[in-house]
Amino acid sequence: MTIHLKIWRQKDRNTPGKLVDYTLDDVNPDMSFLEMLDWLNERLMNEGKEPVEFDHDCREGICGSCNLVLNGMAHGPMPGTAVCQLHMRKYKDGDTIVVEPWRARAFPHIKDLVVDRSSFDRIMAAGGYISINTGAPADANAIPVNKYDADLAFDYAACIGCGACVAACPNSSASLFTGAKIAQLAHLPQGHPERKKRVVKMVDKMAEEGFGDCSNYAECEAVCPAEISITSIAEMRREYVKALSEIE
Amino acid sequence: MTASNNGVLNSKVPEGNLQDKWDNHKNNLRLVNPANKRKFTILVVGTGLAGASAAASLAELGYNVKAFTILDSARRAHSIAAQGGINAAKNYPNDGDTVWRLFHDTIKGGDYRSREANVFRLAQVSNNIIDQCVAQGVPFAREYGGLLDNRSFGGAQVSRTFYARGQTGQQLLLGAYSAMMRQVGAGKIQMFPRREMLDLVKVDGKAKGIVTRNLTTGEIERYAGDAVLLCTGGYGNVYYLSTMAKNCNATAIWRCHKRGAQFGNPSFTQIHPTCIPVSGKYQSKLTLMSESLRNDGRVWVPKEKGDNRPPNEIPEDERDYYLERRYPSFGNLAPRDVSSRSAKYVCDEGRGVGKTGLAVYMDFADAIKRLGVDAIKAKYGNLFAMYEKITAENPYEVPMRIFPAVHFTMGGLWVDYNLSSTIPGLYVLGEANFADHGGNRLGASALMQGLADGYFVIPYTLSDYLAENLHAEKVGIDHKAFDEVENETMERINNLLSVKGKKTVLDFHRELGQLMWDHVGMSRNKEGLEMVIKKISELREEFWQDVNIPGENSTLNKYLEYGLRVADYMELGELMARDALDREESCGGHFREEHQTEDGEAVRDDEKFCNVSSWEYKGEGKEPVKHVEDLNFEFVTPSQRSYK
Fold first, then answer.
1. Alpha carbons B300 and A195: distance in angstroms, whole number
2. What is the total count of domains within chain A?
3. What is the CATH number of the domain that holds B360?
4. What is the DSSP string of A3-63?
């Protein structure tokens, strides 16, 4: 099949970027989207041109490296799917696809489709953990966790940290990412001792990094490849308000 | 010194009963007092399960840690993709499990090519790992009573595998990552993302630093430390197609090998039986379908050659459930090497399915009938969804098509009981070392080993080395050893960029991968191996004359990174073939066609090969030299591994 691509090319942060047109006329429908970009890059290199840089690693939808906006949608048209798991059979012969990087102030641009998401790591370093040293904690079955909470905690823990939530949000908010970690740990008894401190530190850090606030567009939930629910944001707010009212 | 004396490797296995070795050893290891810990800097390369758990644990103890990852965040290391689970001898299901049994299964699963003492220690600390992870907030699967759930995995007859849906690796890694980020917040760990270690710096024979390339700016950077921990994973990407992530590579271990670290059992590669088959030339990687699926999936092919009917139209009595037939006591849960080989045999006979004939069915129809769709969805929902995304087939209705693929490398840098390589101060953890898995790794053991090394072994053994070096002179990055290594590294990069040939890195990598898969894959023979050694060296020559690396060094340039890695794969691939040629027996994943029974089972040679082959690099154009570590089985008796 033939696919027309308009890809964002930008040498570095200080050089203005632009969309560049490419046409591939031998795309196999069983290719993944990233394999199509590999294909394009091979052709560009054979023509002596510079290949398109994009982040990718596991190509199984779990590492969260890939981050492309396709025709205005983070990770493309398939719900609950990272772009590495999107296959070309979802497109029609002759389709045009605009390929752009995540755009957000807190994700500075690096090159072409690659951005810097280290702000997520800094939110995690602010409080996304349970303070337990390696050693000899109690037996794993010492504290039963009811299955409802354990399953819910898992649902929130499934976040792959890709940043699609930020890319899709008109406010560039990282609330879905931050909320998911807070909600996961709030549902586990192990997370309770630091519950209040954690939510305040993480939420404050999120603002400090330049992410916007949430105003309930729910675009994040719509594009999230791990299908994290926006109830995590509600949980985060509830935790935050409770923490502020109870911390002196 | 850990190095070999007259070619004899000292494994430093402590004296005493198997059960007491680790405790005795801990009693004898020297300690570093808290005030002195602050004076040491540890460089941790790689942030997967082994690296993240080591970095966090060492920082908690008070050491200064610098952690390096080639990715943009430590959380993306490929441990994250492990699906099925992690073993521990908790015996929560009351089905007869013990530390001894976990040890015994693992050493038998490895076809008696691993060190007893290491494997026993691994089984001993397995329970601590589960405790540690639960305390960190890892959301393992639980029963309605609130207690942890277990399932069974290949090569075992008990249910000892803890799991978090099909995303166990992700949850364990995020646990270790969060412990690490806590130390980043506390200022005890400095994180260096998008850095690739390109070489090791030695001073007076000891590891004292590393040279990295900043992948964003191309800058070559120097880092000095009192010890270097390599936690850089396996080298399965030598085969081009594998279940490894695209950025997994062998450069760090290979560069250290060239600096004097011996390489143990390089040919021991695990070919995992249940991956989604290859669909075309453009294919960039293979996707694993967790072994846990074999708990409920039945593996079969048609009895007749060339039976092209859709699977649901092939009646029961015309199907060959070959694993159940050949291995009645383990059935579909036969170990990985055995299952993979069986799949190869039936496909070689022309009974493979799908367009390419290189696939077998894994069928859930019986399980769905027995347990209902909802139960299957709860257990494997995400795996089924992933399968459907990739193949556009619904595994609830038609059987999955699966085929073996390169998945894990049991070989790696040789380490002693303390995880020290043959270079003092250079430690190797997780898949990067030659490890505890012998000739074949059992399912749910990789996560166990990575975390055991990082959380519970290295914090003890490293202190012994550091205590010995308390008064050693500190080496700074202005030391001339750094100048030399940096210059060599720059020269390598410039050479590669200046070739400006006609073929892409991908062309070379594909070619190398095909050679490796055909001749150093599931089945190996003398003729093929001798041929492939020659072919690889020709390919390597061609590479340095005709590769085309685009762009420049001074920006993000992934094809330059890739080119440097493929250059190292070419050298490592040759060593793998040499090792496979040298090992005149079949054991675990290493199957030499010359050494098999009449019905195609592996034949070990315990007389000659009950040992580890450890290879020493001798310089450009020179043949490597083999050293041997004999494996002494004091507590188990190696027997013919039977799963019948």
1. 51
2. 2
3. 3.90.700.10
4. EEEEEEE-SSTTS--EEEEEEES---TTSBHHHHHHHHHHHHHHTTPPPPP---S-SSS-S
B146·A158 Cβ contact <8 A: no
Nearest CA in chain B to A198: B182
> Which residues of A are less than 8 Å from B455 in CB distance?
134
Note whether B397 and B510 are same-domain residues: no
Residues 67-96 of A with CB under 8 A from B: 78, 80-81, 85, 87, 89
Average pLDDT, chain B: 95
Q: Is the ipTM of this complex over 0.95?
A: yes
* pTM for this model (two decimals): 0.97
CA distance B592 to B526: 8
pLDDT digits (tens, 9 = 90+) for A124-152: 999 999 999 999 789 999 999 999 999 99
A–B interface: beta-carbon pairs under 8 A: 219
How far from the centroid of its chain's Cα atoms is residue B4's Cα? 25
Mutate to test the interface with B, among A38, A62, A162 (most CBs of B within 10 A): A62
Print the domain residue range for A32.
3-111
Do residues A10 and A43 make contact, with C-beta atoms less than 8 angstroms apart? no
A177 contact B CB<8A:
no
Residue B2 reports pLDDT greater than 80:
no
Q: Are residues A137 and A90 in the same domain?
A: no
Looking at CA atoms only, how far is residue A241 from chain B in angstroms?
23
**With an 8 Å Cβ cutoff, are B245 and A138 in contact?**
no
d(CA B68, CA B71): 9
Q: Which of B423, B342, B380, B424 is nearest to B602 (CA)?
A: B342
| B390/B513 same-domain check | no
